[in-house]
Amino acid sequence: xxxxxxxxxxxxxxxxxxxxxxxxxxxxxxxxxxxxxxxxxxxxxxxxxxxxxxxxxxxxxxxxxxxxxxxxxxxxxxxxxxxxxxxxxxxxxxxxxxxxxxxxxxxxxxxxxxxxxxxxxxxxxxxxxxxxxxxxxxxxxxxxxxxxxxxxxxxxxxxxxxxxxxxxxxxxxxxxxxxxxxxxxxxxxxxxxxxxxxxxxxxxxxxxxxxxxxxxxxxxxxxxxxxxxxxxxxxxxxxxxxxxxxxxxxxxxxxxxxxxxxxxxxxxxxxxxxxxxxxxxxxxxxxxxxxxxxxxxxxxxxxxxxxxxxxxxxxxxxxxxxxxxxxxxxxxxxxxxxxxxxxxxxxxxxxxxxxxxxxxxxxxxxxxxxxxxxxxxxxxxxxxxxxxxxxxxxxxxxxxxxxxxxxxxxxxxxxxxxxxxxxxxxxxxxxxxxxxxxxxxxxxxxxxxxxxxxxxxxxxxxxxxxxxxxxxxxxxxxxxxxxxxxxxxxxxxxxxxxxxxxxxxxxxxxxxxxxxxxxxxxxxxxxxxxxxxxxxxxxxxxxxxxxxxxxxxxxxxxxxxxxxxxxxxxxxxxxxxxxxxxxxxxxxxxxxxxxxxxxxxxxxxxxxxxxxxxxxxxxxxxxxxxxxxxxxxxxxxxxxxxxxxxxxxxxxxxxxxxxxxxxxxxxxxxxxxxxxxxxxxxxxxxxxxxxxxxxxxxxxxxxxxxxxxxxxxxxxxxxxxxxxxxxxxxxxxxxxxxxxxxxxxxxxxxxxxxxxxxxxxxxxxxxxxxxxxxxxxxxxxxxxxxxxxxxxxxxxxxxxxxxxxxxxxxxxxxxxxxxxxxxxxxxxxxxxxxxxxxxxxxxxxxxxxxxxxxxxxxxxxxxxxxxxxxxxxxxxxxxxxxxxxxxxxxxxxxxxxxxxxxxxxxxxxxxxxxxxxxxxxxxxxxxxxxxxxxxxxxxxxxxxxxxxxxxxxxxxxxxxxxxxxxxxxxxxxxxxxxxxxxxxxxxxxxxxxxxxxxxxxxxxxxxxxxxxxxxxx
Length: 1017
What we know:
By secondary structure, this protein is of the alpha+beta class. The chain folds into six domains: 6-147, Rossmann fold, CATH 3.40.50.2300; 269-374, 2-Layer Sandwich (Beta-Lactamase), CATH 3.30.450; 397-501, PAS domain (Beta-Lactamase, 2-Layer Sandwich); 522-607, 2-Layer Sandwich (Beta-Lactamase), CATH 3.30.450.20; 712-873, Heat Shock Protein 90; 890-1015, Rossmann fold. The chain is 40% helix and 25% strand. It has a five-stranded parallel beta sheet, sandwiched between helices. Strand 33, helix 30 and strand 34 (922-926) form a beta-alpha-beta unit.
């Protein structure tokens, strides 16, 4: 059978109760209503606790409705309570809801109907336990009350919230707040878990203080009251409650706690003993750690004692009398004697203040141990007697003045110095000592009286008879009152410094003399103290390094470069140990950052006791001398290199001449033989002979190039076009693993050079770079203009001032060691293994560049690649953009032209005759100049061309050509030679523009050259 509902109706107006009961019983037959009209009935009902809901009047004659509400909620947290009143307002409604009321109604005209609607959810059907807070009264007040109200489900979803909560949490609207789960409001997750535990255990939470996070992330403290609302099955349907912002209150509480903690900390950590004692019983109520440490009693022992127990027996009565006279405020208790636990008596000074402590009248006492001060006072009296004896025994002068310059006391020394003035005590100091009517100008005693500080002055000593001028140094010190610190007199201390003054004058003269020597010295003189700081810096040092003395005095010496720091420190240590160092050549840094070479001599500076106090250094700038020595060294190296190259050149030139003649014969006869052989196998063998001869000829040209004896055919060239034309060739030379980068400066950098040899230079450098990058890399070829002045030219080996076209070949290879860089241009020098190189590649480059009046600048470091910069003189004219017509094969055949061949080598002469006769020319041969002239005369000059070796056994071929041209001006001439030294007279050949064919030559080159010469105008 369903248990009837029980309603607790609390109202002290009987007519109001009857009206409600009558209407409820008419509607709900099984409803049991218990009427409460007074306090006793209410207490009985609470004790029984047999009710399901309650309706209470706000204004009761025997109680406040809020108190009734709180008592019901405290006893039955889950019980719904409806607050009603006949004269309510919004403030009462807010207070009711904040206290936990489930709804609030005014006893207006429609009160009864509103109450019935509010109670209907509780009283109609089943085991309904949901509150009536959705009734019209609740909805009417929900947004009006200033207290934050809410309703949330067990999963934390906010079902409803009034505007006060929206504002409290900083959201823009109710809708925005309802979209947020309530767990997001908690600043700490554990607070939410604790809230839910309390709710599950008790069905409600009361005065639960928690930190919530606003939308703007600000954290505030709220006091939360809430209850669980259950459905018919007893399950929690939702929680509803209110939240009060208590942030300010909590902050005030925290501030109070912090203040209390500070005062507690101040009490406990005060270095002076402090305690609180009961004013009635005199018992210790609290003591600090300093009291425990100072007196030797434990804290427990102190708290079991009274302030009488730490006094000697004879001081107890005066203590009780003094306590009875104390006023409630701050009071000085005076000086007392206390007894420590050890029995030791000490003197103390006590200040106390009346306070309320643990609801008792008490006093807080601060105790200062003045035992030492008392002893000091006794010692001071002893000291005064002792100081008086010292005052009289000091050999220097002492006297004491009061504030009006009256002498109060003097020692015997002053009395002796001024015995002629009679007794000094009682007289003004300026009258007794200087027979003046007012204080002296700049009087130190007057300065001390005015400023309260010490002062000093040097004065002449005066007396009736003075054999020589004497001087006194007067020091004055304030004599202050211990109590208030005011200056009440002056102590004057006087020394006779006559001897010192004379010594100072002599020292001054000596110092001035030494200063003059320092400043007049041409060498830089620097004195460093033991700490390494500059103390002396003369003008020569300023001129040498650029720093003024003011910039370096008192500092660590700026001129020492970082790389010289260790050497500098080692040198200082040696000198500070007593060693003298002379003539040390090193480097120092100037203010502008440049380095200079100096000759350094350093000696220790000792004091009178022989202790080293610093180091004195004398520095001479030897930069110019070192540069001259370096320049001389470079010139000597260049001269030795030139001699070496000259010797190699002479050897190479001689070898080349004979070798070229042999190669000419081998190549020529091989070509003649090749023309007659029909068998392809044999022809191939002869071809190989010719190919090997060409390689040998190339080797000979390299020998001549490195010895600078290779005949040059310089013409104006566009260096950019030369490089561009070689790009494909260079790419094949360096291979696919190396990237070629060409950067050509615009502006057509013209040079005058032999095209073939210039190409040889670029190829040799490219091959050298390729060998330096076995794993691949980058090869850069650039052309630029560069102008060198004299200063810049001096820094580059073999350079000279002027404007030059620069060809730069750089790689990213393994780099070159310094020792290797010094020898890379030497003939036959190589770092490659046996059979991997001839050692002529870079030597050939060097020879060709030198022949072109240029030079090479190499820069490289191991692991950072290498750069070769080749400087060529700028050509004064530009090259002609004219291509020479190539001769066809048919034109290589002669048409019966007559040629005189002059060659002293029989094999070569026979070869030339065979070659030319085989190609349609009519030829005559001669071995010497004399024989050639005879043939020429015999044939009556009937020749179209003379082909002569330059070097012949009797005269030169050049002389022969000139003689024949004199006889027959329209005669064509072609000269040949196996080398190009002074015998060939190459400059004359070039100057007179005679055609020249270099040995060894092939059949095709001979025929082409002769055809070109015959066709030339």
